[in-house]
Write a structure and sequence with these properties.
This protein is mainly alpha-helical. It contains 6 helices and 2 strands; from the N terminus they run H-H-H-H-H-E-E-H. It has one domain: Four Helix Bundle (Hemerythrin (Met), subunit A), CATH 1.20.120.450.
Length: 186
């Protein structure tokens, strides 16, 4: 089964967010990846590790939701051609103004090379996209799971939050690169 219009739109949105992330780090040296603007701030390699852990979590979540959808005999989406891109609008203020502390499960570990995290991002995205294709036969608004900051959200929202999360950290990478002492390109 192909993607519904709704899921294709979400897949396109999170793909665009991923492409922007990869573009932001595409030509960085190891020194640039590992530069910390301050001792208590993340280096770009830390940000990438955090994103890889979060994306791996999204893959696990969608796998779990596939199993749950089959067990619960979730019906197809009654509006597969509608847009779901606005399904996070109710959280717009919280997402824009809240500086969240990463839960331990997705907190970066010390000294994980950026290239290792980038490879994990590639693998986890492949798993996520494969799961999205399989989830297309279900109404994802009926599948919910608690988010650490937003509470119980449905799977359409979960899929979009992953991309928005990457966008937020792409902006953070831009701020790191703009700091005064950021290493010059080799």
């Amino acid at each position: 089964m192909g993607l519904t219009k709704k899921l294709q739109e979400i897949a396109d949105a999170i793909t665009a967010d991923r492409e922007a992330l990869l573009e932001a780090v595409s030509s960085l040296s190891e020194a640039q990846f590992d530069y910390k603007p301050a001792p208590d701030q993340w280096a770009i390699s830390d940000i990438l590790h955090h994103l890889a852990l979060a994306d791996e979590g999204s893959g696990r979540l969608t796998s779990m939701m596939l199993k749950k959808a089959a067990e619960m005999n979730i019906p197809p989406d009654p509006a597969p051609d509608a847009s779901a891109l606005d399904c996070l609008d109710e959280f717009a203020e919280v997402l824009r103004t809240t500086r969240a502390q990463a839960p331990d499960i997705v907190a970066p570990r010390l000294d994980v090379p950026a290239q290792e995290s980038l490879a994990k991002l590639t693998a986890s995205r492949a798993r996520l996209m494969a799961n999205i294709e399989r989830l297309a036969e279900y109404d994802l608004s009926r599948l919910t799971y608690p988010h650490p900051f937003l509470g119980n959200i449905n799977l359409y929202q979960w899929l979009l939050i992953g991309g928005r999360h990457e966008s937020r950290h792409t902006a953070q990478i831009g701020r790191v690169k703009a700091t005064e002492n950021f290493p010059k390109a080799d």
